[in-house]
């Protein structure tokens, strides 16, 4: 039995260890090690996997239970429950069921600089890759659901007994919804963004976030022993030493969560048990790690007095620290992408952007534009295609020099356009600017270049509809009626004669940037792809709100003709309808993710409906309602 346990201990610490190394670690012969491992495999305590010439050994669940029972009398020995030390997470569980004496509404709805505490935390979590959220409600559940109705991927679970139970009962209510590792958040926590990022990326899958003692009078003290959680209590007299204070945010593995729920359901007699003490019970057998952040800016807001103190003292400090954190993030992108030192970065300024966040940066006296992708764009934009199309535009000298493009993250750096003047819907109507924009478009459309992808507006409609469903978004009414009319028009459009050419497909005025009086650039190729060139012309006309006269001049300059053929006029109108319909769906997706575009989406949807009544194409849409 002794040999068996010693070998299992070695495997539990390192599953990639060879039999020779096991022999060296245990002092046994290789023959003895081989014999015992075969016995362990036969008992179902261990299994092996071969990869080339190497063999890895893993402790099974039965083996872990065996070790647990054998160590029961040795309190200092704990089991590493995981064979995988780090795992990415995308889910947060927020406990928001309880009622505070000072508030007649949930603590998560406390306002922090015009925004509820829950909304602020969810936005920080989303920015750090947490896309799914489970919220356990109880007290005033409807108020919580209403406040967060526009957030995607939220599931509300009610603890109907929240008045008579503790936080462990609330956590157990979410058992059926939790299927993987997750972040556990208490609703009343205000915390700096960097702490969330550090906890998410911490190598330990079970990890308690702790900070230095605050002296608030309601602290949950923590003691660490041998690098792992040893004790949690609000009674400081129970401690040999205090290593920190529990913050109220933890990273929990699915395996440890399952143990917590099992222990709670089978053995617990106290309905008021809080989850941190159940976690401590599990920590008797398994390693529960910790992350201590010194000088952490955070607060728990349980009372009105705490809220006043936080807004007066803590939040101003937190804002300054978060501004520094975001600046450091930008600097890290530049250091990694350009191979420069942090001290080489001389200036960082916000630089606009509707979908993404752009910054004007100066590095070694040279100016560049850094693009950081917006929230949720990873599902809507193919970055590999964008990279190829951006490089093509740069080679054609339609766009500025591309310095760096990371197709996995979407981070892009390009050279700043000198003496830049970004067009807007008003300046785009000037004839001198129209000559520049049409010249750039003709150069692109007539280049003979072939983009690897096609921008299929109808395929995009299907794709965006699916994304809208995934984020529980809703379209404007009467969506189905308008969609049927658009699909009828599509059948007529596909019979028309035109060739696909390289197109930009997102011709807002702001994507044209002048440099001096006679040079213009076309930037941002997220939606680039082979398409009907009239799609680009229709897009620019729509986005700049061209009048009939503006559009006629624009088309004459592009066509180099005194007349605009009727088939071009029809294609223009059809492409306008397709675009207004498509981008109205896009807007609903973005708004479901928390962005606010005002009436933009509804305006485009209603304009598509008006265009469908135009006599030029009305004959093709047989069932438009009068």
UniProtKB/TrEMBL annotation:
Tagged with keyword Transferase: yes
CDD domains assigned to the protein according to its UniProt record, in alphabetical order: ChoK-like, PC_cytidylyltransferase
Cited InterPro entries: Kinase-like_dom_sf, MobA-like_NTP_Trfase, Nucleotide-diphossugar_trans, WH-like_DNA-bd_sf, WH_DNA-bd_sf
GO BP term, pick one: phosphatidylethanolamine biosynthetic process
A GO CC annotation given for this chain: cytoplasm
Keyword annotations from UniProtKB, A to Z: Transferase
GO molecular function annotation: ethanolamine kinase activity; nucleotidyltransferase activity
Domain MobA-like NTP transferase: 92-212
Gene3D superfamilies reported for this sequence: 3.90.1200.10, Phosphorylase Kinase, domain 1, Spore Coat Polysaccharide Biosynthesis Protein SpsA, Chain A, Winged helix-like DNA-binding domain superfamily/Winged helix DNA-binding domain
PANTHER family, alphabetized: CHOLINE/ETHANOALAMINE KINASE, ETHANOLAMINE KINASE
The protein's name in its UniProt record: Phosphotransferase
Organism whose genome encodes this protein: Niallia endozanthoxylica
